[in-house]
């Protein structure tokens, strides 16, 4: 029998001439979870962006502007987070200043882009902060990033085409699992295809991409300027596919890690679905399957699961509405805060190999591009976790109209990502640095 190999995806293996067999991580033999988190090594940084649609009950969600710092009174809608008050901060005064359309929901929350930023196009978006982070933080993980979705129609995240929180370098939405079952399978499902067949399939895909690239380059010699721009976008798409293919080749034959939760049952919706997706997020981080995640959470099914009949769009315009609409808005906010409290607790309770916790090395951003109704100023922004070196336990009030991208840039740099700027940022947001 050959000696134990180098750790692969947090799981040690026995290598024989014909197979790779996963073994537990025997700490008595000196093993920890993986090379990246070996004894004496600092656990990696992680970033998690949790987006919710339709805004908040602003009168009871935001702390009072006149109570900055750690001594602020916790608003009623954040009361379920009381036990964790010292572990998160609220940042007020941020907005995506180039975004003026309240019907675009989550579309620009993590990009800060101008929808009219490309001449001659009716819609434009740019790369999102999670994808910038993934280029740096995701080099050593099986999945560079993971974009989790709720599967709701576009309007479920604001109004309009808010199909994704995550956008690639071409400004195209990044797809991903739409429920906990899909997410679990993506992360932890065991590969049943024989290794040689996997290699053959990857080789076939590589050949197809090579041929497509060669033909596209030949075609480019006969195209005009406008069509050349379209071709460049097409070529970038091929290059992105090549990158993913290279990652698949790197991990071929490596066993999937064993998660700390059972396979989810299908059919969950709303509150139960969000809670389970949070469990999957913790498992993804704990197994180092990825270090960058986004999750566009459901709102419509959350309301339904709570027995509320108010339509999500109507609820977002709760001002001047009947009392039951306001009450639905409050119940939604409280439920979301309770779920977030559960996630923070799990991150604080889950230990790293060095004795610290996931919370110590993870930054969780919880928020929305919309304050309420169609209002896009003072985006709801809650930041938890110690991964990016931000102040925690405070009501941080910045100058009104400060670019939200300043916060994103600060989190990138605090997480070790070398970024000179991001989106429409004007610099780092010093007010949130610890």
Protein model, in words:
- The chain is α/β, with parallel strands linked by helices and 434 residues long.
- The protein has ten helices and nine strands.
- It has helices spanning 58-61, 129-137, 180-188, 195-220, 225-251, 271-286, 300-305, 312-316, 323-349, 404-414; strands spanning 12-15, 20-23, 46-51, 88-95, 146-148, 292-296, 362-367, 381-384, 395-403.
- A hairpin with a 4-residue loop joins strand 1 (12-15) and strand 2.
- It is globular.
- The protein starts with 11 loop residues before the first strand and ends in a 20-residue tail after the last helix.
- The model is unreliable at 1-38 and 154-162 (pLDDT under 50).
Strand and helix order = EEEHEHEHHHHEHHHEEEH
Q: Can you summarize the main beta sheet?
A: 7 strands, mixed
Report the principal-axis shape.
Answer: globular
- How is the largest sheet built, in terms of strand order? 5-6-3-7-8-4-9
The CATH H-level homologous superfamily of the largest domain: Alkaline Phosphatase, subunit A
Supply the CATH architecture of the largest domain. Answer: 3-Layer(aba) Sandwich
Query: Average pLDDT across residues?
Result: 84
Total beta-strand segments = 9
- The low-confidence parts are 1-38, 154-162
CATH class of the largest domain: Alpha Beta
Measured as a percent range, the helix fraction is 25-40%
What structural class do the secondary elements suggest? alpha/beta
Number of domains: 3
The radius of gyration over CA amounts to 22 Å
In terms of DSSP E residues, the strand content is: 5-15%
